[in-house]
Amino acid sequence: MNQIKKTVKLLRRSPYQALAAALAMSLTFFVSSIFIILIIGGQIVLNYIEQRPEVIVFFNDEANQTEIDDLTANVRSTGLTKEIKFVSKEEALAIYRERNKDDPLLLESVTADFLPRSIDISVNRAADIKQITDLTQASEHVDKVITPENLVEQLVKWTKTIRLGGLVFVSTLLSVSFLIIIMVIGMRIAIRREEVSIMSLVGATKWYIARPFFIEGALYGILGASISVLLIYVLLLFYSPQIQNFLGDIRVFPINPLFFLYLWAAEALAAALVGIIGAAIALYRYLKIR
Amino acid sequence: MLEFIAVSKQFPDGQVALDDINLKIEGSDFVFITGPSGAGKSTLLRLITKELVSTSGQVLFNEDDIAKIPENKLHILRRRIGTVFQDFKLLLSRTVFENVALSLEVLKKSDSEIEKEVSEALEKVGILEKADYFPAQLSGGEVQRTAIARAIVSKPEVLLADEPTGDLDPKTAEQVVELLEKINKEGTTILMATHNAAIVNKFKKRVVHLKKGKIEKDQKEGKYEPD
């Protein structure tokens, strides 16, 4: 505790270097936080879609009710479905009207005859979607089959891209942070060269001399990570209505406060490690004790 | 306590600072190391703290070869030796108290122990009332007393003083050596490098005179007559 107090006192004596180092760390971990949230968010959306495996089968107008019922029975007999719901032309119109209630122009021109009959099939497992799709598409009475498979593929592709981009971007920023920490602590060592030499001559161990620099590196990291998480928290709080609006039925808000605590703990730990390793490199490079 | 056996020191540029030094110093001795500038006085002291390592020969401290002390054990040696530097080496941003406390901080003493022992050391050197002053606010003599307090606060077995009276007026210089004599009487071995003849001749201690890196004279109650 005493050492931390002493380190803080030293930081206050040259606040601009300390600020530069902490801000570099903040930027790195702020960007990291954004990528982490994008990846977690992408996963939530993916899970939401995968947990609602639905296939919508639209029939052409030539299909009669018996043929629709036969296909429905056929699908049910696979044992892969959870629920199958028939949607008549009238029900389709009701759904259409509900979705477009704010646009009278669209409502005026559409009648039940324009809309196809369909069955909504809930599948037990996402993996079974393909089998159901193949089965229904084979029927001559089916006009179109909509599945979430394409959407999932698209999302997985996006998530992978975000992960890769994030990795490259964060690695670059991390390297810059490392260099700034090495530079700032190297300057500190240069400023305190005389003190270091006196301490060595009065019997200080190398660890005793090096420890404040390690604490300093760790403090930059923890401070940077804290600023970053605070910023992310405020931004998410501020933009949560817009984000929720964009995501529609996928509920992500309110975010559990524990998430921010875990994010802070993980980032503070990672940032402290970056600071300590940076300090170690600076000490190895610049601290020559005789 | 301290023994130099055939010690020579040559710097990388070829300059010979010490040449075949044989010297034995017993516990509680007070020894003046005299000689003109460049005679090797400071080099001799720096071999004892292992700031420098001899080119040949051995420097023994309590029969341990100093050159063989590994880097990670060097602090143990240095805690047993106090040093007063020619240029004082006080930290200008720290008060007198904080400068002296540095020697105890590295020993990981508690705040209360540091408070007590620093106050005792400052009282011994006569500047307790200046504890909260910064070095820039002190006179030359007071700065040197601060440096001595820092060197003795951890109660070392040996005190090395490299030209401690160099920048002081004769009266203050005398007071500083009287202080060192007092510390010596309490049992600390003292090696003082100096070229101040008046001081050496007044205090009548053992004098080891160096010239061009060699011991020219070693007298029990010696005198120093500059060339």
Automatic annotation (TrEMBL), chain A:
Pfam families cross-referenced by the UniProt entry: FtsX (PF02687), FtsX_ECD (PF18075)
Alphabetized UniProt keyword annotations: Cell cycle, Cell division, Cell membrane, Membrane, Transmembrane, Transmembrane helix
Parts of the chain that traverse the membrane: 21-46, 167-191, 212-239, 259-284
Record domain ABC3 transporter permease C-terminal: where: 168-289
Signal peptide positions (record): none
Keyword Cell cycle attached: yes
GO annotation, biological process: cell division
Predominant cellular place of this UniProt entry's protein: membrane
Superkingdom to which the source organism belongs: Bacteria
Membrane topology: Multi-pass membrane protein
Name listed for the protein in its UniProt record: Cell division protein FtsX
Annotated organism of origin: Candidatus Curtissbacteria bacterium RIFCSPHIGHO2_02_FULL_42_15
Lineage of the species this protein comes from: Bacteria, Candidatus Curtissiibacteriota
From TrEMBL, chain B:
A Pfam family per the record: ABC_tran
Biological process according to GO: cell division
Membrane topology per record: Peripheral membrane protein
Compartment(s): Cell membrane
The entry's keywords: ATP-binding, Cell cycle, Cell division, Cell membrane, Membrane, Nucleotide-binding
GO molecular function, one term: ATP binding
Top-level taxonomic group: Bacteria
InterPro entries in the cross-refs: AAA+_ATPase, ABC_transporter-like_ATP-bd, ABC_transpr_LolD-like, Cell_div_FtsE, P-loop_NTPase
A GO CC term assigned to this protein in UniProt: plasma membrane
Cross-referenced SMART domains: AAA
Cell membrane is among the record's keywords: yes
ABC transporter domain span: 2-227
Subunit note: Homodimer. Forms a membrane-associated complex with FtsX.
Annotated function: Part of the ABC transporter FtsEX involved in cellular division.
Family: Belongs to the ABC transporter superfamily.
Name of the protein described by the UniProt record: Cell division ATP-binding protein FtsE
Organism, scientific name: Candidatus Curtissbacteria bacterium RIFCSPHIGHO2_02_FULL_42_15
